[in-house]
Design goal:
mainly beta, Immunoglobulin-like, about 10% helix, about 45% strand, globular
């Protein structure tokens, strides 16, 4: 009994202690959100130092029983987010926001046929993130790359709605075989217009630049590769997102044309030059050089700004709604979008509807399938319309309307100057291009054994377009050329597919990491194109919808084009101890574009990297957090020719046979079955670095590319009956350096922050050989030792002045005419005096993005520059005629009383000044602030009361400032264009407001 009693007491005390402990145990619950207020599912919530834990559900909610709540600590962990510790302190409800671990997120980079940790990358790759894409209002994805990545040059062709910019990665290699990069969307090569893709669905864009990174795509990666990843669903409850914007678009500035007073003076001077204007009798002289209509308008004081009549404010509107979410097994996203760009010319617009669907499904533990669909329908109007041309030429002394308010067909009585406003009335000009496209990426992936995966990618792509152009008899083009109404109808269908079989294996053995990627793929495309041209539409309201009623068919064409590429690829990755990395790649491409025996090209590459930061001698230091040295060498190819180019071409020709008309066929293009691949051999050396725990990161790279077997026309003697034949001749070179820096200047989460990205790059192209031992191909302006594109012309060195009349006479010219450089000093100007004036290739280019934030406000500024290039301006060629028939640029021209050295004297006997083309070359350097955006996010408490996750408002201005000699000194509008400043849609700026919301 004595032994039993103490035991009973002990049991009673234990029960009492247990009850007391239970009394101290509490239930803790709450929600876990991301910084964008999206609930996070699957977050591990555990007690620090204990084995107790749970995970958040679809709503981001958790509940956990906690003992000793006064001293316990909750630990929240989730992949891609920083670990968060939160003391309980007796609380029952604890909700937190997990911050994204930027360092961890940045470690994953999309590469060809997969992704790698950033520290394991051996090639040259730049990334443009979602945030960067959203910083600027863009019409198509290429514009989002402008000024964002070193070595990537994006130049806008025009401000015409629907136009796409030119993209060059590390310069131009080929002289005639194409220099556009390959675009890959969700793993599938993408051909055609990127405008079909709404920018709101893009998650990121990765640019592959060196041979190691691009060789995996073989011939199609010859000019670099842009990998586009669309947005995917997340492990969260359904999230509804909306983004909308409206932009007010105006002409950046008018082309500086002469007003009435200046034009009248210029015409008088043009006739004064040839001795047909008597200043002593101006009234009689004016009656001789101005017609009755013009004289009447001069007396009335008519002064018309035709640009203001033709140009009116446009607008851009963009709306997108999406729903995304999912769980551990299924993730989805569905979105629709609408975009419209109404140009400042009424007949130009671009409208697009988008649908995107993405789904990823996990089946069991080893099988994963998914699909993404990008659908679009677009309508473009005025693709080839250039109404500003006639408006600039129209005289300011011409009145557009008669006394009854009706348009005057020929306001000056000149049949070569119809009223440009006629295009805007009675459907005199109708041009529409409708496009429909469905681009799909399907995949299935199975993990055969641990580390070994097989993936099947299937990418069907269907495109159609329907084109129509109607020009009524009162359309300005027909009023100049004469004739009945015309119409054109075109239709095309493009069917393409890509099938890829990808096998990957990754294995880690102690300090050794092995990775292998094998590929077998086929890509095929068929394009069926038909077009018909007619003249004499009997009822103009039929436009181009009833061609069979036309009086005559002026053209009927159709074509079928097909090509196939068959590919094999193997890539081996090896890493030792996270310090030494090696990548070996070999790809073989067979292209149907080449003749049998020449169809296969083989493209090897090797790349190595040294993660110096992981060496023992850098352990313990706290300044550097990344330092890697990379080097690569390899070959890539370029098909660069149209299908059937090796087979030659026949053309139909009429001839007389037995006294009767007959049709026959003659060769129009020589065949060359020996054509083969252009091949680029590339070497690259780069250093990646980071300081102060990621506050400063950057890259410095040097590259050298040598392209051989250039596909280019070889000129032949005319006695052969052909001008040229396509051959593999010539060699070119590109060398350059790239620098990219990202930094956090000020980082105060509760106050002011300042972050910046800066990039600088320079590329030097050079032709090393053009075949046949020649040093120059003057007709194509190709010169050994010079850039691949140059301006070759006479050099204007001024205007002949009165004091130099005697010397001018030696050149058979007079004072007031253009003075050209006599290169060989032989006292005459001939073809031997033409010279290389410059190149559109800049000495260097760069860009920067500056982001400033304070509490809920954020200001972003995006700018870029091109320095040291030359441009050719068609404005100074087409609207600087100086003979008085058309209006003229408002220039400072030479007169005996105004000895200008910039532009020649007007001359009524010359439709254009002698050697007028020499007036067109200018310094093309410029600095642009491309976009300034100010946004404000409402406080979390206010947003929560509105039952929302996020609400942000923004206002921005596009292209608010351009600093350029062409603009400030020479009164040009915008120096940015590809090679030649064309006469097209006016450059614009835009004021935009927008809203982003999540529910």
């Amino acid at each position: 009994m004595k032994k039993i009693f103490p035991r009973l007491c002990c049991i009673a005390l234990c029960l009492l202690f247990h009850q007391l402990s239970q009394a101290q145990s509490i239930s803790v619950e709450g929600n876990v959100l991301a910084t964008d207020k999206t609930p996070l599912m699957g977050v591990t919530v555990s007690l620090k130092g204990k084995n107790t834990g749970t995970q958040t559900d679809q709503k981001g909610h958790y509940r956990l029983q906690v003992k000793d709540p006064a001293n316990a600590m909750l630990v929240f962990t989730f992949i891609g987010f920083t670990t968060h510790e939160e003391p309980i302190n007796g609380r029952n409800v604890i909700s937190i926001v997990l911050e994204e671990d930027r360092k961890k997120l940045d470690e994953i980079v999309v590469v060809g046929y997969g992704s790698q940790k950033k520290k394991d990358i051996t090639g040259s790759i730049s990334t443009v993130s979602t945030k960067a894409i959203q910083d600027v209002p863009v019409t198509n994805p290429q514009q989002a790359l402008q000024g964002r990545a070193p070595g990537v040059e994006v130049i806008n062709n025009s401000s015409k709605p629907g136009d796409e910019p030119q993209v060059r990665i590390r310069g131009s290699r080929s002289l005639s075989a194409g220099n556009d990069p390959l675009y890959v969307v969700d793993g599938i090569p993408y051909a055609g217009s990127l405008s079909d893709i709404g920018t709101g669905v893009i998650q990121s864009m990765d640019i592959l630049k060196d041979a190691s990174a691009t060789a995996i795509y073989g011939s199609r990666g010859a000019n670099g590769v842009v990998l586009i990843t669309t947005q995917r669903g997340k492990n969260s409850k359904p999230v509804v997102s909306y983004s909308g914007s409206y932009g007010y678009v105006k002409q950046l500035s008018e082309t500086d044309m002469m007003n009435a007073s200046r034009f009248i003076d210029m015409r008088r001077e043009a006739y004064r030059t040839i001795g047909k204007y008597d200043d002593a009798n101006p009234d009689a002289s004016d009656a001789k050089i101005f017609n009755a209509v013009e004289l009447a308008n001069i007396k009335k004081g008519t002064n018309v700004d035709w640009q203001k009549l033709m140009i009116s404010p446009g607008y851009q509107t963009n709306h997108a709604v999406s729903v995304s979410g999912g769980n551990e097994k299924t993730k989805y996203t569905v979105g629709i979008g609408y975009f419209k760009d109404q140009g400042v010319l009424k007949l130009q617009s671009y409208e697009r509807y988008n649908l995107n669907v993405g789904i990823d499904q996990q089946i069991g533990s080893r099988v994963r399938v998914g699909a993404s669909l990008l659908g679009s329908y677009s309508l473009r109007q005025g693709e080839t319309y250039n109404g500003i041309d006639n408006a600039l030429k129209m005289l300011p002394i011409a009145s557009p309307y008669d006394s009854a308010g009706k348009l005057i067909t020929y306001p000056t009585g000149d049949s070569q100057q119809p009223n440009p406003l006629l295009d805007y009335t009675n459907n005199n000009r109708v041009e529409k291009m409708s496009r429909f496209r469905i681009f799909t990426s399907l995949y299935g992936e199975v993990e055969i054994i641990d580390g070994l995966k097989y993936r099947l990618n299937v990418g069907p792509d269907i495109q159609t377009y329907n084109y129509g152009l109607f020009q009524g008899k009162n359309n300005t083009n027909l009023l100049i050329g004469g004739g009945d109404a015309t119409a054109t109808k075109g239709y095309a269908t493009t069917m393409a597919y890509t099938i890829e079989n990808v096998l990957t294996y990754n294995k880690a053995i102690k300090k050794n990491n092995f990775g292998f990627t094998g590929l077998y793929s086929v890509q095929r495309q068929n394009a069926d194109i038909t077009s018909t041209n007619v003249r004499g539409i009997p009822v103009e309201t039929q436009q181009y919808y009833n061609l069979g009623q036309a009086l005559s068919v002026t053209g009927a064409n159709s074509s079928l084009s097909s090509w196939t590429i068959l590919s094999y690829m193997g890539r081996l990755n090896y890493g030792y101890d996270n310090r030494y990395l090696l990548t070996l790649t070999l790809r073989a491409d067979g292209s149907s574009r080449f003749a049998p025996g020449k169809q296969w090209g083989y493209f090897p590459s090797v790349a190595a990297a040294w993660n110096i930061i992981n060496e023992k001698f850098l352990k313990g230091q706290n300044i550097l957090d990344n330092l890697k040295l990379r080097a690569s060498y390899g070959r890539i190819g370029n098909t660069g020719i149209n299908p059937y180019a090796t087979q030659g071409q026949l053309g139909r020709i009429p001839y007389s046979f037995a006294g009767k008309g007959a049709l026959g066929f003659v060769p129009t293009e020589l065949r060359n079955p020996n054509l083969t691949w252009e091949t680029t051999t590339s070497a690259d050396i780069g250093v990646d670095f980071g300081f102060f725990n990621g506050r400063i990161t950057g890259v410095v790279e040097w590259y050298n590319q040598r392209t051989t077997d250039l596909l280019m026309p070889h000129l032949l003697p005319f006695s052969n009956g052909f001008n040229s034949v396509l051959e593999n001749v010539g060699t070119s070179q590109n060398r350059g350096i790239e620098i990219g820096l990202s930094g956090t200047v000020i980082d105060n989460p509760k106050g002011f922050s300042w972050k910046m990205d800066v990039n600088y790059f320079r590329n030097r192209s050079k032709i090393l050989a053009i075949g046949g031992g020649r040093t120059a191909d003057v007709g194509n302006a190709w010169f050994v030792g010079h850039p691949t594109y140059v301006y070759y012309d006479y050099k204007k060195i001024g205007i002949w002045q009165t004091k130099d009349a005697q010397e001018a006479a030696l050149y058979n010219v007079k004072p007031g005419e253009i003075r050209l450089e006599d290169v060989n000093s032989d006292k005459k100007i001939d073809a031997s005096d033409r010279q290389i004036l410059g190149s559109p290739e800049p000495k260097w280019s760069g860009g920067t993005t500056q982001r400033f934030s304070y509490k809920g406000f954020e200001l972003s500024i995006v700018a870029f520059a091109r320095i040291g290039s030359m441009i050719k301006s068609d404005f100074y060629q087409n609207y600087n005629t100086l003979f008085g028939r058309y209006n003229n640029l408002n220039i400072d021209y030479f007169t005996p009383n105004n000895p200008s050295n910039d532009f020649p004297r007007p001359n009524a006997n010359q439709e254009r000044p002698s050697n007028y083309q020499s007036l067109s070359y200018f310094d093309g350097s410029f600095f642009k602030i491309r976009n300034i955006t100010l946004s404000y996010s409402l406080p979390d408490a206010m947003v929560k009361r509105m039952q929302m996750q996020e609400l942000r408002f923004n206002v921005g201005v596009k292209q608010p400032m351009i600093i350029a000699p062409y603009r400030q000194k020479w009164k040009g509008v915008d120096p940015e264009d590809v090679n030649v400043i064309g006469v097209d849609a006016p450059a614009t700026w835009m004021l935009q407001i927008g809203v982003n919301a999540k529910f």
